[in-house]
Amino acid sequence: MIEVADLKRIYRLGQVEVAALRGVSLSIDKGEFVGIMGPSGSGKSTLLHQLGLLDTPTSGTISINGTDVSRLDNGERTLFRLMHLGYVFQDYALVSELNVMENVAIPAIMQGRPLDDCYDDAARVLEKVGLGKRLHHLVYELSGGEQQRVSIARALVNTPSILFADEPCANLDTENSRTVLELFRSVNRELGQTIVMVSHEPWHMEYFDRIIFIRDGLLDQERMGRVGRNGRPGNPA
Ligand SMILES: Nc1ncnc2c1ncn2[C@@H]1O[C@H](COP(=O)(O)OP(=O)(O)O)[C@@H](O)[C@H]1O
Ligand SMILES: [Mg+2]
């Protein structure tokens, strides 16, 4: 469902060029829970931002569900994100003036659906992440782990075809990190939700179906070979 060919992203800062991605090709199937791992500065967030249409590559192609998204104009990209993609960030990015249910309903409201339906869907998905009793709380009344579950509910409210998460556990302790990872695994298994998650915590590896290792802006073939072809254990290259 995601096909990437020879993806490059070069940041230009005045006279200086930083090659954050130097030619990455990969594919991700529907229903996979994929980890993107590698050292700090290796290009993990840059890769996720290209896949999630939050940034535009310098060259290369990305196809999602058969659409060549590299060819979309800005308006079409915004609509594609709203209709097909969900995002979870490390800082939760919730709106502090709104209650939990309103925060989760935002992407549904932006699709232009009737308000009552949006709140019903928000309440249903909050129930699923274990926050059915927190609908009318303000964000600051919740713990960090609960806030991240609110942001996961928001990412899921429009039933996206792909959920992207960039180090969603970076600000959480081990217990809350486990809760978040188990929630991802359960929506992956129960709903068949495709998830692409960046992490640099080795202990997160056990949760992923497959790991894409990157290093210096390229796939780390050596490391992927060690765990199997394409990072899939038990499928040696
Ligand atoms: N907006 C930007 N402008 C310039 N350089 C950037 C920008 N974002 C990232 N970089 C650089 O690109 C490289 C990869 O960064 P990033 O994708 O954030 O790595 P990671 O998420 O693996 O830590 C790093 O050298 C980083 O400094
Ligand atoms: Mg990063």
Describe the structure in brief.
With 237 residues, the protein is an alpha/beta fold.
Give an overview of the whole structure.
This protein is of the alpha/beta class and 237 residues long. It has a single domain, classed as P-loop containing nucleotide triphosphate hydrolases (Rossmann fold). Helix content is 35%, strand content 25%. The chain has helices at 44-51, 74-84, 100-110, 115-128, 144-156, 174-191, 221-227, and strands at residues 2-13, 16-28, 33-37, 59-64, 67-68, 85-88, 162-166, 194-198, 210-215, 218-219. The strands form 2 sheets. The chain has a 6-stranded mixed sheet with strand order 6-7-8-3-9-10. Helix 3 (100-110) packs across helix 4, helix 4 crosses helix 5 and helix 5 (144-156) packs parallel to helix 6. The radius of gyration is 18 Å and the shape is globular. The two termini are 22 Å apart. Bound molecules: adenosine-5'-diphosphate and magnesium ion (MG). The site of magnesium ion has 2 residues, from helix 1. Adenosine-5'-diphosphate is lined by residues 11, 13, 18, 20, 38, 40-46.
Tell me the layout of helices and strands.
Layout: E1 2-13, E2 16-28, E3 33-37, H1 44-51, E4 59-64, E5 67-68, H2 74-84, E6 85-88, H3 100-110, H4 115-128, H5 144-156, E7 162-166, H6 174-191, E8 194-198, E9 210-215, E10 218-219, H7 221-227
Parallel strand pairs: 3-8, 3-9, 6-7, 7-8
Antiparallel strand pairs: 1-2, 1-4, 4-5, 9-10
Helix pairs in contact: 3-4, 3-5, 4-5, 5-6
The chain binds adenosine-5'-diphosphate and magnesium ion.
